[in-house]
Amino acid sequence: MTTVLDRSKAHSESDVQQWLRMYRQMLMIRLFEEQVNDLYTRALMPGLAHLYTGQEAVAVGICEALRLDDYITSTHRGHGHCLAKGAQLGAMFAELLGKEAGYCKGKGGSMHIADPDTGNLGANAIVGGSAGIATGAAFSAKRLNTGQVAVCFFGDGAMGQGLLYEVMNMAALWTLPVIYVCENNLYNEYTHNSETLAGDMLTRAVGFGVPGERIDGQEVRKVYATAKTMVARVRAGAGPAFLVCDTYRFHGHHVGDINREYYRSKQEEQQWKTERDPVKLMLDWLTTEKVANRAQLDQIQNEVKAEVEKAVQFAMAAPYPAVDRVAQDVYA
Amino acid sequence: MNMVQALNSAMDVMLERDPNVVVFGEDVGYFGGVFRCTEGLQKKYGEHRVFDTPIAEGGIVATAIGMGANGLRPVVEIQFADYIYPAFDQIVSELARLRYRSGGQYWSPITIRSPCGGGIRGGQTHSQSPEAIFAHVCGLKTVMPSTPFDAKGLLIAAIEADDPIIFLEPKRLYNGPFEGDPKQPAVGWNTHPAGEVPDGHYTIPIGKANTVRTGSDLTILAYGTMVHVAGAAAQQTGVNAEIIDIRTIAPLDVDTIAASVCRTGRCVIVHEATRFGGYGGELSAIVQEECFWNLEAPILRVCGWDTPYPHAQEWDYFPGPQRVAKAIRQVMGC
After folding, report:
1. In what order do the strands lie in the sheet with B111-116?
2. What is the pLDDT of residues B71-81, one digit of tens each?
3. Which of A152, A69, A65, A234 shows the shortest CA–CA distance to B65?
C-alpha cells in the first residue's frame, strides 16, 4: 500500500497506515457480507446468515487495539469480528458453505467460526453464550501470566441474559483482563430494545465496580482510540471494563428478514445508511483530511473486491467433507 | 478411605502433578466444601488454585469452559446435582460442542463434580439423579462411581481426560456403603474391600463397566448406590445373579453388558432416577438389540417413581432391596 505525499496536515506514516488498514478492513467486511447476501439470495449458501453490515467500525476499531494472541468471542452476527481479528476470507467463505476447507471443517457454519491462530475463541449463536468463555479465557491469561486480554462481543439483546452479570461479577471479583463490548444496534432480533431493557446499560456494570463507557460505534477512529486506552488499562491489571458502542445493522436480523417495516421504518434505516455509514464516514474523513486521494482509495476498493471474489471462487470449488467425518471431533 | 477422602485424594494428586489443575466452586475454598471433599486443598495449594466462587452455577461452568480452552484444567464442584440446571445451557450448548463445532480446534478438559442421589432426606432439590440428561448429550462423558476405590481412580482419569466429564457422586455412599434399608445401622467404608484406597496416582478407565458379582441366572445392571442395593437384593432372593456396575454412564461399556446378558438370558435394570425417559430405557433398548435371541424373559426396570423426589415418602420412592428382589423373582419366574 502506498501513501500520498500531498497531505494538508502532517500525519505520521504509522497513523496513515493504520487508518488505511482500518478502512480496508471495514471495506473487506462490507464486501464479504454483500457477497454472503448474494450467495444466499441465489440459493448457493445453505442455512442462516446474520450480516454485520453497518457495524464494521466496532469490530475493526476494537480489534485494531488488540494483539494477535488476544482473545475475542463473537456472536451469531460474527463475520465482522472474525475478519477484523485476522481471519482469511477463503476459509471464512468455505466454512459458510460447509466445506472441508472451512475454519471448522464445515461443521461450525456461519455462526460458529473459530480460529486459534488469530485468537478467535469462536462465534456463538447463543445470545450472551460466550460471556463466560471470554471471562474464563481471561482467567487463564492472568493465571498463566500470558499478558493476553479477552474481548467479549455481544449485542444489546444479551443485556437480558443473566449469565452476563454472573461472569461480570466474577471478572470484577478476580480482577480479570476482559472487556465486555456491547454492540447496541437497537434491536433484539426483531424487538426494539426500548421494550426489553429497563434502566441504563452502563450503570449495570457500574454496580459491579466495572468502569463503563458509551461511544458512537460508527466512527472507527473513535472506537479505536477508546479501545486502545481501555485495552492498555485492562492489560495492565486494572480489571474488567465495559464498552457500549451505539451502532445499527443495515440489513435485517438475518438475510431472510427482508420486509422489516413491521418493526422498524424505512426512514430510520435510510437515515443510518446515509448519515451514519461507518465505511462512508471513514472514506469521507480520509478524503477530507487528504490522507489518501481518490485513486488510492479506489485501488484499495479494487484490491479488496478482487480478494473477496477470489475467496468466493476458492470456497465454491472446495470439496465438501466426507460423510465419514460426521463423527469426528465429538470426543478427543 | 471413605469416598469423600478418596475424592479429596484424587484432587490432591492431580493438583500436585499438574500445575494447570484448578479446583473451584461454591464453598470449596477455605471451608472445604459442604461435604468436605476439598478440605485442606486450598491451604496446601493456595487461593490461586483452589478457590470459592459466587453462587452462580451458570457462571462457574461458563468461566471454566474458557479457562479450559485457554490452557487450564478446571475441576469444578456444583454443590448438589440439583443445582446444575442453571449451568445446563453452558454444558450443552458450549462445553459439549466446543470441540465439534470448531472442527477440533478448541476443547475444554473440564471435570464437573456433583453430589447426586437421595437417601439423605434432602427433598426434591437435594436428591436428584440427573445422569440421563447428560447421557443424552453427545460430547459429554458421564461417570458415577460406587466405591471409594473407583471414585478416586475414575476422578483422576476424568481430570486427565481431554473431554468434558460430568462426575456424579452418590452422596449416600460418601461415608459408607448403603444397601437400601435405612433402618439398618450405618456402616463405614473401613470394613469394605473397596475402602482400601492407595495414596498415590492410579486411574480406572472411563468407559469400562465393572462386574462386581458373577452369576449365571440373571444380570443386574446398576450404578452408584444401586450397586449395593442390588447386591442386597440378590442376597435376599438367593438367585445366582451377576451384577454389573455400569460406572461410566456414557460412553457405555456395551460389550461387558451384552456378553453377560447373552450368557444369563435375563436382565434387571436398577436406577434411582425417575423411570420414564430414564437411562434404564436406553439400557433396555441396547440389551434388546444386542441380546434379543438370548433373552428368556422380558427386561425389567426398577426405578424411582415418576414424581419429584418426595420428602415424606423417600423410602417408597427409593428403589430399595425389596422392590429389586421382587423384580428379580418376576424375571426368574419364581
Report:
1. B50-52, B21-25, B73-77, B111-116, B165-170, B141-143, B248-250
2. 999 999 999 99
3. A152
What domains are there in chain B, each with its CATH number?
3-173 (3.40.50.970), 207-332 (3.40.50.920)
The partner residue sitting opposite B101, judged by closest CB among A108, A150, A173, is: A108
Q: Which domain holds residue A72?
A: 13-318
Q: What is residue B78's three-state secondary structure?
A: coil
What is the amino acid identity at position A92? M
Cα–Cα distance, A41 to B297 (Å, whole number) = 58
**CA-based nearest residue in chain B for residue A325:** B103
pLDDT at site A1: 47
- Which one, of A39, A15, A18, lies nearest residue A312 by Cα? A39
Q: Using CA coordinates, name the residue in chain B closest to A135.
A: B63
CATH of the domain at A106: 3.40.50.970
B71, A140: Cβ pair inside 8 Å?
A: yes
pLDDT at A48 (0 to 100) = 87
Give the integer Cα–Cα distance in Å for B282 and B289: 11
Predicted confidence at residue A136, as pLDDT, reads 98
Specify whether B271 is catalytic: no
B23 bridge partner residues: B50, B75
Residues 6+ apart with CB under 8 A from B91: B61, B84, B112, B134, B137, B140, B164, B166
Task: Calculate the CA B294 to chain-centre distance.
Answer: 29
Decide: A133 and B67 in contact? Cβ < 8 Å: no
User: Per the domain annotation, does A80 fall within a domain?
Assistant: yes
Q: Do A104 and B103 touch (CB under 8 A)?
A: yes
Nearest by CB to residue A169, choosing from B54, B69, B74, is B54
Q: How far is the alpha carbon of B105 from chain A, nearest alpha carbon, in Å?
A: 7
pLDDT over 70 for what percent of chain A? 97
Type of residue numbered B198: P
CA distances from A39 to A29, A36, A256, A309 (A): 15, 5, 12, 12
Residue A78 lies in a domain: yes
Tell me how many domains chain A contains.
1
- How far is it, in rounded angstroms, from Cα A60 to Cα A278? 10
In a domain, A207, yes or no: yes
Give whole-number Cα distances, A163 to A220, B7, B63, B126, B128, in Å.
29, 29, 10, 23, 24
Interatomic CA distance for residues B218 and B250, integer angstroms:
23
Report the sign of the C-alpha dihedral through residues B231, B234, B240, B246, in that order. Answer: negative
- Let me know: does B48 contact B66? Beta carbons within 8 Å: no
- Tell me the ipTM for this assembly: 0.93
Paired with B73 in beta bridges are B21
Handedness of CA B49, B50, B56, B61 (dihedral sign): positive
What are B29's three cell numbers? 475454598
Q: B201 pLDDT exceeds 70?
A: yes
* pLDDT tens digits for range A188-207: 999 999 999 999 999 999 99
Considering the entire predicted model, what is its pTM? 0.95
Instruction: Identify whether the C-beta of residue B77 lies closer than 8 Å to the C-beta of residue B42.
Output: no
How close is the nearest chain B Cα to the Cα of A71, in Å? 10
Pairwise CA distance, residues B13 & B8, whole Å:
9
pLDDT per residue as tens digits for the range B213-226: 999 999 999 999 99
What is the per-residue DSSP string for B111-175?
EEEEEE--SS---TTSS---HHHHHTSTT-EEE--SSHHHHHHHHHHHHH-SS-EEEEEEGGGSS
pLDDT in tens, B29-40: 999 999 999 999
For residues A141 and B64, what is the distance between their CA atoms, to the nearest angstrom? 13
Q: Rounded to whole angstroms, what are the CA distances from A264 to A155, A184, A278, B308?
A: 18, 15, 20, 46
